[in-house]
Amino acid sequence: MFKFAAAVALAGALFSGAAVAQPAKPTVVLVHGAFADSSSWNGVVEILRKDGFPVVAAANPLRSVANDAAYVSDVVDSIAGPVVLVGHSYGGQVISTAANGHDNVKSLVYVAAFAPEAGESVADLAGKFPGGTLSGALAAPVKLSGGGVDLYIDQAKFHDQFASDVPAEQAALMAAGQRPVTETALTDKSGEPAWKKLPSWFVYGTGDKNIPAAALGFMAERAGSKRTVVVDGASHVVMVSQPQKVAELIEEAAK
């Protein structure tokens, strides 16, 4: 009788443990865009980690769509288990390409990001709707010895153009540490985008001066966004100024 009772108790404990066991959370891979770097995700990373998500903030090379997507693809390859790919700005085009061929990528999140159709470039989409002022805020191009040019935002114009809702001192640090993008990367045409196969979520601000809000809304609708969050007055770096809203949307996509 004692042995039977003990066996019942053990079985109950095992089944109870199985009932409450939670599946491992997906890894969130964050891909920054032009004129930013991985630290632009710090506020979002802090929230995601607190909520138990593994996070990788990839260092996007910003050299060309093919090169950058291959790098992010390699990062995804190194991760066991499901992945949520998140892209900011030009990083949206990168994740749209990098996700292809990866069964472990379950969803895409576009943060003030481009979601091009096949044959489109970010330069095409940036000029599709009025309101963008990036071209007038760029510094003189830096000529590269191997050919082509690197583009930066003029540091004196960075706060107003890129991060108007971020404190001035913080924006000045971001301006000094901005990662340049090649002109080639901005004119590269997209291949077949992963958002046609994977569910996507979008978040952007109405105060974005790099990509007009109308363009961002157009891309979200075209991609069949599961949910689009529009943050009133937020700048192009909505993940810096509104990390909670961005993190919440990423966590929704992760479910």
Keywords:
three-stranded antiparallel beta sheet; six-stranded parallel beta sheet; Rossmann fold; 255 residues; 15% strand; alpha/beta; globular
Q: What's this model, at a glance?
A:
The protein is of the alpha/beta class. Helices cover about 40% and strands about 15% of the residues. The protein has a single domain, classed as Alpha/Beta hydrolase fold, catalytic domain (Rossmann fold).
Task: Outline the structure in words.
With 255 residues, the protein is α/β, with parallel strands linked by helices. The relative contact order is 0.17. The protein has a single domain, classed as Rossmann fold (3-Layer(aba) Sandwich), CATH 3.40.50. Mean pLDDT is 93; it is low at 4-11 and 13-19. The protein contains eleven helices and nine strands. Helix 2 packs across helix 11, helix 3 packs across helix 4 (91-98) and helix 6 packs across helix 7. A six-stranded parallel β-sheet has the order 2-1-3-4-8-9, with helices on both faces. It has a three-stranded antiparallel β-sheet with strand order 5-6-7.
- Tell the overall outline: globular
**Poorly predicted parts:** 4-11, 13-19
Give a quick account of the main beta sheet: strands, pairing sense, barrel closure: 6 strands, parallel
- N-end to C-end Cα span: 45 Å
Can you identify the CATH superfamily? Alpha/Beta hydrolase fold, catalytic domain
Gyration radius (Cα, Å) is 21 Å
Strand adjacency order, main sheet: 2-1-3-4-8-9
| Integer count of domains | 1
Helix content: 40-55%
- Whole-number average pLDDT? 93
* Text of the CATH class: Alpha Beta
Q: Would you tell me which CATH topology applies?
A: Rossmann fold
* CATH hierarchy: architecture: 3-Layer(aba) Sandwich
Given the structure, what is the number of helices?
A: 11
Keywords: Hydrolase, Signal
GO molecular function: hydrolase activity
InterPro entries: AB_hydrolase_1, AB_hydrolase_fold, Sec-Metab_Biosynth_Hydrolase
Pfam family, one: Abhydrolase_6
